[in-house]
Amino acid sequence: MKKTCLFIVSCLCILQAAGQYRTSTEPEPSGIRVFTTADEKFTLWLDGFVHLDGSMFFGYYEDYDPIPHGGAVRNARLALKTTFADGWSALFEADFSKLKPRITEAFIQYSGIPNLHIKAGHFESLFSMEGAARPREQAFHEKPMVISAMVPVDLLGIQVSTNQYWFLGSLGVSFDKTSYKRQNPEADSILTTSFDSRTVMAKVVAMPFVNNKDLGLHVGVAASYKFPAKDPVTGSYPSIRYRLGNVAYINRNQYLDTYVINNVKSQYLFNGQAGFYYKGLRIQGEYLYNMTNLSKPLSGVEGPVSALHFKGFYAQAGMLLFGGRQRYDNTTGLFMNPSRGRTWGDVEVLVRYDHLDLNYDPIKGGASQNYTAGINYYINDHVKLMVNYIYTDNDRYANGAGDFFIGHDAYGYPSKDYSQIIEVARKAGVDFHTVSLRLEVTF
After folding, report:
1. DSSP 342
2. pTM check: above 0.70
3. Domain boundaries, the chain
4. 50-442, which class in CATH?
């Protein structure tokens, strides 16, 4: 922590020292201030954003586990960016929302070859459209459940990507030190062993109408293969646990939970994704399929089970009401914050459906679906107001591995045991409504 703070203070001192060499011809980056050395070979700037969230929950049975209302600083990030030499750049970003620094990104990138980008360090891969989107570029408060639970993020690795006219391709290798939790201390899905795993990721995207400013189409597929290393002492494979809550950060009840799955030999992820935009309209969706292979089979109802299959998807749409335009970056295949149609800003209305299924015999991790409606008010380049309404429908197995009430037994008492509850399929599980608000400030 001391080293991180020292690094940030040192960089801020450099900012002040270099400020006298600011040039008016330098292109405008996302940060608010740009500083360049006299020979214009080194540029450093400051960038950051803050999310202030508040949520209310209602509509669940009173004798179920309570879901307290509350507020939180969801993100408080500060980034130092630099460009140097020809085609070289770097970024260091830390999050301070939990009152202590947490590195979110730290990488170096080379883009000196036309249409080719080589990135190395700690970053989010391009495997998923929504997974790779930065928090301040998200249309909704939180990412869909299937993205939060399964998409490989926050890994140390190398990624090569290219965009040639209508084609985008990406190939990456990452190395996950599995003895430590991911950078998010409340990460949903973490490996829990004392040895390493490696992941290979590939993605291809077709982007017809790439030169049309008002019209765009994104159709892509991606695959990821994770192969954990054996313990050098015992020769055993690691374990994994898929665990997460629904799509409101304030609600920390993690209803979906496979508990610990031991002897994970490998993991395959397959992703189909599509996006479309026309002027102020945007439609986007992804389907993810997870196959987790085990070195020692589990005992299922119909016999030994050596491979577990989980899946999920989301579909969302948004429309700007006052002449704004959706923005798409064909170098990364990601949507960005839209442009505004009026001097006072613009308003976007959104809807999303997302589903995640972590049930596969003999694992009963639960299944859930969310119906979300949102309104975003883009006031200017630095301030955005967001409101999300969410209806959450959990099934009878979404009991947090036995931690939460999900129904009532034959005597009318609340029960955490899905085999004892008497509610019918559509009534079992924790169902509730959420209203969330967010103030986003960027600089």
Report:
1. B
2. yes
3. 50-442
4. mainly beta
